[in-house]
């Protein structure tokens, strides 16, 4: 097994929109055969329970990248070519309706065999008894193909519930010209980070006003729709709360540091550095504001945004009418999230992947083995390499690295180095958090934190009122002894 920090050490090979993890190039997908040839587990090993009987594996997949869904027919054909007795049947979903579609199928007791979701949602479905543990089915060759760090995000307790597609860092992104006009030493920030106090002063300098009208904000973060929980989750990791639970399994968000971050959320709006209408800014609007020069810094920033900005620049130079209306040439700069209260900087990793589900009935050994073949096919080899190259993320499988050898990726070298720093500070996986605790934390997030955060952003409640609501819900769920009391 590889050293679990191999991903971080190997970040030299960096080669992701929520609707915007924009990626897979159709040119490379034309003969995509997943792990075939490049990965030993796909062709040289039989998974336990494997047979030659006909079988169909279903998968519910969102637009992981710009061209990803347009290649579904090719993926299905390549999988059938690799396994002539098996059919891969893919159902597309948008990022916006992915969770609703999946939950509807789960609640009906007939989920897809594979669904592309964030690793943070695994505990929810384990608690419902609807995930399939593939520990005894995934071959040694399959497991060895993955870097251990991201693979561990697909674990819960002793179980393994799928394969990761990528490991990306949620960061911020800046407009190089605007940063320099504001006197911000962005190269220093990339390497050394910044405190919340330094960040707050920087985004104040990025504001441009004409009379009482703000023409450019210092900072805009998407907080509506599918991004509703991202903002707070990224900030609190840098305030001594890298996870919802401490190492001794106490719920962390009752810490006084949580309240201080909530105060900061209001401060940046009240300063005028962020829009008063922040609660209505979704992922698309956030990116549009960045490309049209309405903000100096945007979040959350993903590596693929550099690629998206570059492509829009090319359209502007070519007078291509499909460029974002009103957009300006923009050089995208990767920036870290600020740290709070003297706490160490902790990067917020996004590990999404192909999670394996089961219905109400126990799947046969044969079907289980076939689902694992399909999940590995999607997560490795050429599919993985093509996705990673377009998302500007590191390959996390050896087969992906081999398949990516001839794929050229043109990145800003300063951004490459910045991402290496962020990867080195990424919060590790926490498979030790019991399923029932993880599921209860997700419930508090969905029922209390997200709606209260929206109210806080809209200035309908105070930081103190939100903090007390979260604390009350946490104590009700975990008891006085099960939460942080500092």
From TrEMBL:
Gene3D superfamilies: Periplasmic binding protein-like II (3.40.190.10)
Segment forming the signal sequence: 1-22
Region (Disordered): 32-53
Pfam families tied to this protein: SBP_bac_1 (PF01547)
Keyword match Signal: yes
UniProt KW keywords: Signal
Record bears the keyword Signal: yes
Coiled-coil residue windows: none
Protein name (Swiss-Prot/TrEMBL): ABC transporter substrate-binding protein
């Amino acid at each position: 097994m590889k050293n679990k920090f191999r991903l971080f050490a190997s970040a030299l090979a960096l080669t992701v929109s929520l609707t915007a993890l924009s990626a897979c190039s159709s040119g490379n997908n034309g003969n995509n055969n997943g792990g075939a040839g490049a990965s030993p587990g796909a062709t040289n090993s039989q998974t336990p329970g494997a047979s030659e009987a006909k079988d169909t594996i279903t998968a519910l997949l969102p637009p992981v990248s710009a061209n990803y869904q347009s290649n579904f027919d090719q993926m299905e054909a390549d999988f059938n070519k690799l396994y002539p007795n098996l059919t891969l049947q893919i159902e597309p979903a948008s990022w916006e309706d992915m969770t609703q579609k999946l939950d509807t199928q789960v609640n009906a007791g007939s989920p897809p065999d594979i669904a592309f979701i964030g690793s943070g949602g695994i505990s929810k479905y384990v608690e419902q008894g609807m995930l399939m543990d593939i520990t005894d089915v995934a071959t040694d060759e399959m497991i060895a193909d993955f870097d251990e760090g991201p693979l561990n995000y697909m674990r819960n307790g002793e179980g393994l519930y799928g394969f990761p597609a990528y490991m990306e860092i949620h960061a911020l992104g800046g407009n190089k010209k605007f940063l320099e006009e504001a006197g911000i030493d962005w190269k220093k920030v990339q390497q050394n980070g910044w405190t919340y106090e330094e960040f707050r002063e920087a985004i104040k300098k990025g504001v441009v006003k004409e009379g009482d009208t703000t023409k450019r904000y210092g900072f805009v973060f998407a907080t509506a729709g599918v991004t509703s929980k991202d903002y707070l989750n990224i900030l609190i990791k840098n305030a001594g709360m890298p996870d919802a639970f401490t190492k001794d399994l106490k719920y962390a968000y009752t810490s006084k540091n949580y309240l201080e971050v909530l105060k900061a959320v209001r401060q940046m709006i009240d300063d005028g550095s962020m829009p008063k209408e922040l609660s209505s800014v979704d992922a698309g609007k956030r990116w549009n504001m960045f490309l049209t020069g309405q903000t100096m810094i945007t979040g959350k920033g993903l590596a693929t945004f550099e690629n998206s900005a570059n492509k829009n620049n090319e359209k502007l130079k070519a007078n291509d009418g499909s460029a974002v209306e009103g957009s300006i040439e923009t050089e995208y700069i990767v920036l870290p999230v600020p740290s709070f209260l003297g706490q160490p900087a902790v990067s917020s990793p996004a590990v999404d992947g192909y999670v394996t589900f089961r219905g109400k009935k126990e799947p046969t050994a044969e079907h289980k083995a076939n689902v694992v073949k399909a999940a590995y096919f999607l997560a490795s080899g050429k599919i993985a390499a093509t996705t990673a190259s377009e998302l500007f993320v590191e390959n996390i499988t050896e087969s992906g690295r081999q398949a990516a050898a001839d794929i050229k990726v043109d990145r800003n070298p300063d951004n490459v180095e910045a991402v290496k720093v962020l990867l080195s500070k990424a919060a590790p996986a926490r498979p030790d958090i019991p399923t029932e605790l993880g599921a209860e934390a997700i419930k508090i997030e969905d029922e209390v934190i997200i709606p209260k955060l929206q109210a806080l952003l809209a200035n309908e409640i105070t930081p103190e009122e939100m903090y007390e609501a979260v604390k009350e819900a946490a104590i009700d769920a975990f008891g006085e002894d099960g939460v942080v009391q500092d």
